[in-house]
Design goal:
By secondary structure, the protein is α/β, with parallel strands linked by helices. Helices cover about 40% and strands about 25% of the residues. Strand 5, helix 7 and strand 6 form a beta-alpha-beta unit. One of its GO terms (molecular function) is DNA binding. Keywords: DNA-binding, Transcription, Transcription regulation.
């Protein structure tokens, strides 16, 4: 099993269990104890888990939002496909608002050599968008300011919100924490919801990018109703009833 696959499996196991031992992971992953211990040290440094004697403990409390390091391991193939599809929906020289989160970071990776002007809402996205300095075709960056959320490295607060609202974007790419057809787009906290709302309300078109795990998930803060959305890019195929409701709302669905 490859290192990345082991890390994803360990992350998945710790979403379901409070604690797991090295011996159990050796059996699950088919790797040596030394390899598993190295994996746990790496994942602990990324905020995925906490090392304890003989194993690891989950950092995900029941009902809480998993940390960025945990989410980064999950649904990686789906996020890559979503990022490819989102890139195809953008036109050169567009002004784009890009949400924060692990899906948004993957999208930033795809946009690193596009001729766009982008306001990314996390330093993780900035890192990908600003690294290819030798390329003559890279995005122009607008940084929102505000405060940074530790771990997430995302911009928050009234300064960031005001700077977003002072501009007009061709497209907002929103990565909700949860989505359902009754409530719409949801976030785990009020500050994140306010930033997402500012982004989508400042754009002519709203693209929602979300993996299937976000559908009908739990989150407490309302961002916007579904009628604010123009396109949803996801790896989950909606039911016939959901397709009808989305069609009635004039929401295009791109399935990857």
């Amino acid at each position: 099993m490859r290192t990345a696959d082991r890390h994803r499996l360990i992350g998945e196991l710790l979403r379901k269990r409070e604690e797991i031992t090295v011996d159990e992971l050796v059996a699950e992953c088919g790797a040596s104890g030394a390899t598993i211990r190295r994996d746990l040290e790496i994942l602990a440094s990324h905020g995925v888990l906490r090392r304890v004697h003989g194993g690891a403990r989950s950092l995900v409390d029941r009902g809480d939002n998993p940390g960025y390091g945990q989410r980064e391991l999950e649904d990686q193939n789906a996020k890559e496909r979503i990022a490819v599809a989102v890139e195809r929906l953008l036109r050169d020289r567009d002004h784009v608002w890009l949400d924060s989160g692990s899906t948004a970071t993957e999208i930033a990776r795809r946009l690193a050599q596009r001729e766009l002007t982008i306001m990314p809402m996390s330093l993780r996205a900035v890192e990908f968008l600003a690294t290819d300095l030798a390329s003559g075709r890279r995005p122009g960056l607008l940084l929102p300011g505000g405060s940074l959320v530790p771990g997430e490295q995302s911009f928050r607060g009234p300064m960031a919100e005001a700077n977003i609202r002072s501009l007009r974007f061709d497209t907002a790419i929103v990565t909700p924490c949860a989505i359902n057809l009754k409530d719409g787009l949801l976030a785990h906290d009020l500050e994140d919801a306010a930033i997402k709302r500012a982004g989508l309300e400042s754009a002519g078109r709203v693209i929602v990018a979300c993996t299937g795990s976000k559908w009908n998930a739990q989150a407490v803060a309302l961002v916007a109703a579904m009628d604010a959305v123009d396109v949803i890019v996801t790896d989950r195929k909606p039911s016939t009833e959901e397709c009808t409701r989305l069609e009635n709302l004039s929401v295009e669905v791109v399935i990857v």
